[in-house]
UniProtKB/TrEMBL annotation:
Residues 44-161 form the GOLD domain. PANTHER family: TRANSMEMBRANE EMP24 DOMAIN-CONTAINING PROTEIN. SMART domains: EMP24_GP25L. Pfam families: EMP24_GP25L (PF01105). It comes from the Eukaryota. It is a single-pass membrane protein; Single-pass type I membrane protein. The keyword Transmembrane applies. The keyword Aminoacyl-tRNA synthetase does not apply. PROSITE patterns: GOLD. This is Transmembrane emp24 domain trafficking protein 2. One of its GO terms (cellular component) is membrane. Belongs to the EMP24/GP25L family.
Length: 250
């Protein structure tokens, strides 16, 4: 067999495998944002993420340092009121009545935490089939340290996004649609695993910060003990020297 033919036969399975992995990565979860931030005492900070219709967003956060390792948090979701039918979508950008409805947004509390050291929440935006317009939702998370008068808080938080499955029946075959659905199911599993892995990472980071603080406290205690022992030795030396000097003088 010619070497070139053997190379092409081996290259085809590799190319197919690379394409499959690439598709799986495209359908997997995406890290929308990951932050480590400091919230001063008496302060409140908010962060927002845009979420496509039908998509899911997972939030995980953990206080890593400061005070009692706690913070108040609230997660909001802002959505546009649904339309009556799909035909109104074509007129939503120039009809005054529909434009007013487009601006008629609703903000609801998804979850709230009080004096929490950690938390997680997953939110799924209304699908296009439900709203008829398919406009994105906005998810806002606010961290509140206003109850603290002195101590700032350091926290880690992460947004993970998961897009909705979109299959166009006019541009894909039945086999391709089945592949898309299978990849989307695998992507859902990856999304859940990524959320759990992020929580574990934040736990590890919080433990690392606490161990580092404990090491600093132990080091400061050792230095303090050494200083105290040195002062006691110096005091005893001076006292004994004076005592012996007086005895010799007598």
């Amino acid at each position: 067999m010619h070497p070139a033919h053997a190379f092409h036969r081996e290259a085809r399975p590799r190319t197919a495998l690379v394409c499959l992995v690439a598709l799986l990565l495209l359908h997997g979860p995406s890290a929308a944002a990951g932050f480590g931030t400091k919230i001063d005492a008496g302060d409140r900070e908010c962060f927002a993420e845009t979420l496509s219709a039908g998509g899911s967003l997972a939030l995980t956060f953990r206080v890593t340092d400061g005070g009692s390792f706690d913070v108040d948090a609230v997660m909001y979701a802002t959505t546009v009121a649904p339309l009556d039918d799909v035909e109104q979508t074509t007129r939503i950008h120039y009809s005054e009545l529909l434009m007013a409805r487009r601006e008629n947004t609703t903000t609801a509390v998804v979850n709230a935490w009080r004096r929490a050291s950690a938390g997680s929440q997953t939110y799924t935006a209304p699908a296009a089939a439900e709203t008829k317009h398919g406009l994105p939702a906005e998810v806002t998370v606010c961290f509140d340290n206003s109850f603290s008068r002195v101590s700032p808080k350091w926290l880690l938080f992460q947004f993970l996004k998961r897009d909705v499955l979109e299959v166009d029946p006019t541009s894909t075959t039945r086999a391709e649609a089945e592949i898309e659905k299978t990849l989307h199911r695998h992507g859902t599993v990856l999304f859940e695993l990524a959320t759990v892995a992020e929580r574990m990472r934040q736990v590890g980071e919080a433990d690392r910060v606490r161990y580092a603080s404990l090491a600093h406290i132990i080091m400061a205690g050792l230095v303090g003990n050494i200083v105290i022992l040195a002062l006691m030795a110096a005091y005893q030396y001076v006292t004994l020297t004076r005592f012996l000097t007086r005895r010799r003088a007598k």
